[in-house]
UniProtKB/TrEMBL annotation:
Organism superkingdom: Bacteria
Residues bound to ATP: D378, E382, F412, S413, A414, L415, T416, R417, M418, S419, K435
Compositional bias (Pro residues): 1-15
GO CC annotations, alphabetized: plasma membrane
Protein name: Potassium-transporting ATPase ATP-binding subunit
Major place of residence: membrane
Active site per the UniProt annotation: D341
Main enzyme class: translocase
Provenance organism: Streptomyces piniterrae
Subunit structure of this chain's protein: The system is composed of three essential subunits: KdpA, KdpB and KdpC.
Length: 727
């Protein structure tokens, strides 16, 4: 159940039309966090091999091939053998040419299948991005003074620019990404998140970010547009799932360079084979030489490399995490430390005032009145909840419009940790009220020459020790500066966090909570959530500094946060996961967005990162050892006529030189298709030490790669040896 927003009327139940499409094809799941998106056929659907075939053919374009050195060489070889088949036709030359082209097509197919999954998702998302009409406020400069009565004009959503202000009412679609600057509303974000339970979006706090394409269910919001046309969250999400924006990671580039180097070495080897062969009196045809080259170079990993990367991103999308950079996904596999912010990340983030506690001998009503006055212009959820409590429990009316204008408001900032008001009306002229973190308010009173009784600290400490956040309220009037009492703010730790942090610990990841809140509250929440360490009273700079400090110690750091005060830290972290509930600043700064706003999602992100690294390593090992075996098929076949002794190498007992070479080439092509499911699904990851993982994979995929071709080539040889011209 969602907490009722302070000023909102009860949220209507969201539309749960079972036929409504979600971005990922499945029917919308019932509400609830952390559910999985599953599709029939799991992560790999054999049918997609057929449906992606046309795209695989399109990828034969030289420009597309040129970015993959290994495949480019295979394609050049295919051109050569095709030419030679045309000039001196033979069954052997044509069969080899055909299978060389198939090798390239199969490699393209791996990539096309990986991308195809995203294309289907992108299609659904495109349908979400409706041609909405926006209602823009005229006279933008007046915003903040008179949002309610402002005139509006209608225009296509596509024409909206950053810093336009738009009004969105119940039932309407939010026309662009932005931050709520006025109002509280229930929003149905299922179009983007697949999550049908409505979420609360409100101005002032860390839950102000809204996404274009989502629908307002209740009330009315004024939104300041933050996205440029064509660069909205939905646009980026579409580009992401389509793989259009995917850039190679440094690791991938390094591997490509290694593969290119191996390819060059083997080209040199094959080029020098010819003079040796002619010296021995066994001149080899172009077809045989090309076949030798193709079996030697690492075609398997060359073909699957980009599919592995795309599939990794895709697996994250399945978990409702949008990764803007592949590099971050890889870094996630090696994370040492996870930093989390408290409010809105570890806790639900709707910190609400639940009680006003006056100091001994002071009047509760006077405290409520001061608390309310100090919060009239405080647009944070905390500030609004103070006004609501004053009204509901103490029946305090809000001052009339005219009175409100005779005041200077002091806005809350994460640096000052205070907010308040300086009154200038009638008998109240000269009265200053502040509320905020205990240390800051005590300083403020002291600065004006006042004294703070010891009870103030006792009261705030008691609230903090229970995990609540105390705000001291102080006034400075003709009786001097003094503390009136405490506001008790309450927040709730998200469900099931404790067990999940224990899991992170087992994975060897240290969790650190960094919060702007006081040390006692921080300790209570840290204990309840089960983090390893915490830093309290952290300013945005402190959060950033702590990450830099860890990184300087050689650690890879992930940061999870939702607030504008988290943005610098999110940008600095190797993996910055922004909560989807957070501000647009946080979402812009991070390199991942978690649509479920679940801080423990990092567990899955880490697993997917590790799985990506392991899969790539395993298939590279397989690819390289696999080529060794083909040696034994081709070399004896090439020289059997001149060096009878070499037939000792023909341990597979292959039928003839032509059938041996053909079998090796056919196997080389088929193994790509056979490994596409593994590349897309990923090698299974079980938590264990890096050393164990390496050893296990080297034996499994190294040995497998060595043995598989012997069996496969022998089988193919048996099958084709009866074909005239090959046998
Ligand atoms: N509206 C407000 N008016 C006055 N003081 C506030 C207000 N909101 C928060 N504070 C005080 O300022 C402190 C810092 O708030 P800030 O938003 O920077 O961090 P936080 O939300 O408590 O923690 P986190 O960084 O984990 O989200 C709070 O702990 C509280 O004591
Ligand atoms: K090969
Ligand atoms: Mg926060």
């Amino acid at each position: 159940m969602l907490p009722a927003p302070p000023h909102a009327s009860p949220a209507p139940t969201p539309s749960t039309d079972p036929a409504a499409p979600t971005p990922y094809g499945g029917a919308p799941a019932p509400g609830g966090r952390g559910r999985r998106r599953s599709r029939p056929g799991g992560l790999f659907d054999p049918k997609s091999l057929l449906t992606s075939f046309p795209e695989a053919l399109r990828k034969l374009h030289p420009r597309a091939l040129a970015t993959k050195p290994v495949l480019f060489v295979v394609a050049c070889g295919a051109v050569l053998t095709t030419l030679s088949a045309v000039l001196t036709p033979s069954v052997f030359a044509w069969v080899i040419s055909g299978w060389l082209w198939l090798t390239v097509v199969f490699a393209n197919l791996a990539e096309a299948v990986a991308e195809g999954r995203g294309r289907a998702q992108a299609e659904t998302l495109r349908r979400t991005r409706t041609d909405t009409v926006a209602r823009r406020l005229r006279n933008n400069w007046r915003v903040g003074i008179d949002l309610r009565g402002a005139e509006t004009e209608t225009l296509p959503a596509a024409d909206l620019q950053p810093f336009d202000f738009v009004v969105v009412e119940a039932g309407e679609v939010i026309p662009a990404d932005g931050d709520v600057v006025d109002g509280v509303a229930a929003v149905d974000e299922s179009a983007v998140t697949g999550e049908s339970a409505p979420v609360i979006r409100e101005s002032g706090g860390d839950r102000s970010g809204v996404t274009g394409g989502t629908r307002v269910l209740s009330d009315r919001l004024v939104v300041r547009v933050t996205s440029r046309p064509g660069q909205s969250f939905l646009d980026r999400m579409i580009a992401l799932v389509e793989g259009a924006t995917r850039q190679r990671t440094p690791n991938e580039i390094a591997l490509h360079i290694l593969l290119a180097a191996l390819t060059i070495v083997f080209i040199l080897v094959v080029v020098t084979v010819q003079p040796m062969a002619s010296y021995a009196g066994a001149v080899q045809s172009t077809t045989v030489l090309v076949a030798l080259l193709v079996t030697l170079i690492p075609t398997t990993i060359g073909a699957l490399l980009s599919a592995i990367g795309i599939a990794g991103m895709d697996r994250l999308v399945q978990r409702n995490v949008l990764a803007m950079s592949g590099r971050a996904v890889e870094a996630a596999g090696d994370i040492n430390t996870l930093m989390l912010d408290k409010t809105g990340t570890i806790t639900l983030g709707n910190r609400e005032a639940v009680a006003f506690v006056p100091l001994p001998g002071l009047d509760e009503l006077q405290l409520a009145d001061a608390a309310q006055l100090s919060s009239l212009a405080d647009e944070t959820p905390e500030g609004r909840s103070v006004v609501v409590l004053a009204k509901n429990k103490y029946g305090l009316r809000q001052p009339a419009e005219g009175e409100l204008e005779h005041a200077d408001y002091v806005e809350f900032s994460a640096l000052t940790r205070m907010s308040g008001v300086d009154l200038r009306w009638a008998d109240r002229s000269g009265v200053a009220i502040r509320k905020g973190a205990a240390a800051q308010v005590i300083d403020w009173v002291a600065l004006h020459g006042g004294e703070v009784p010891a009870e103030a600290r006792l009261f705030t400490d008691a609230i903090a020790a229970s995990g609540g956040t105390p705000l001291l309220v102080a006034v400075h009037d003709r009786y001097g500066p003094r503390v009136l009492g405490v506001i008790h703010l309450k927040d709730v730790v998200k469900d099931g966090i404790h067990e999940r942090f224990a899991e992170l610990r087992r994975m060897g990841i240290r969790t650190v909570m960094i919060t702007g809140d006081n040390p006692l509250t921080a300790r209570a929440i840290a204990q309840e959530a089960g983090v390893d360490d915490y830093l309290a009273e952290a300013t945005p700079e402190d959060k950033l500094a702590l990450i830099t400090q860890e990184q300087e110690g050689g650690k890879l750091v992930a940061m999870t946060g939702d607030g504008t005060n988290d943005a610098p830290a999110l940008a600095q972290a190797d993996v910055g996961v922004a909560m989807n509930t957070g501000t647009s600043a946080a979402k812009e700064a991070g390199n991942m967005v978690d649509l479920d706003s679940d801080p423990t999602k990092l567990i899955e992100v880490v697993e997917i990162g590790k799985q990506l690294l392991i899969t790539r390593g395993a298939l590279t090992t397989f690819s390289i050892t696999n080529d060794v075996a083909k040696y034994f098929a081709i070399i004896p076949a090439m020289f059997a006529g001149v060096y009878p002794g070499l037939s000792a190498l023909n341990i597979m007992g292959l039928h003839s030189p032509t059938s041996a070479i053909t079998s090796a080439i056919i196997f080389n092509a088929l193994i790509i298709i056979a490994l596409i499911p593994l590349a897309l699904r990923g090698v299974r990851y079980t938590p264990s030490s890096a050393h164990d993982l390496l050893r296990r994979n080297l034996t499994r995929y190294g040995l497998g790669g060595l043995i598989a071709p012997f069996v496969g080539i022998k089988l193919i040889d048996v099958l084709i040896s009866g074909i005239p011209g090959l046998g």
